[in-house]
Prior knowledge:
Elements: H1 3-24, H2 57-64, H3 66-69, H4 85-90, H5 93-102, H6 118-129, H7 136-150
Helix pairs in contact: 2-6, 2-7, 5-6
Amino acid sequence: MSTKGKILITAGIVVVSAFVLSACMTIPSFQGPPPASDNVPSEELANISIPGVPAEAVPLFVENCSACHGPTGEGSGIAPPLNSEELRARLDDQAIAATITNGRPGTAMPAWGGRLSDEEIAALVALIRNWDQLDEEQLSQIAEQAEECAGPMGPMHPGMGPMMGGGCDSEGERGPWWMPGRP
């Protein structure tokens, strides 16, 4: 191969590498606290009653899970569905709790164990386990609130939930996935 050919190949590798590395620089990283948000799940969500599910489960889902898992748990391009019969059949409560607590290495699922209490994680597990008990009106109410909390870009855009820098955190804090420059 000629010297010119080697230079072109090397230049191509450098360009591709620079592109890949620049994409990696946009991967969420652990950053400082954000400004407070006014987008907090409404108290009405705590009134959604599901037998065997603590009242705080639905607001917790909207605040912490809906940005990635979809407004009604249907999943998205970055996270699997939580409203799945297959998931409920495949995973027991302990496995679901472990996933929430420890995250899933190699995926966008962060560890929530340092942010949510054991009781809050148990409430989310109960919601996932009993998802099929939600009726259409309840799902519509959850979806509406999740879309409001996700911000102007919508719930399916990475970077819009509280862990991702968006607005449903009732304490006005962004989680470890907040990226500088994100609204």
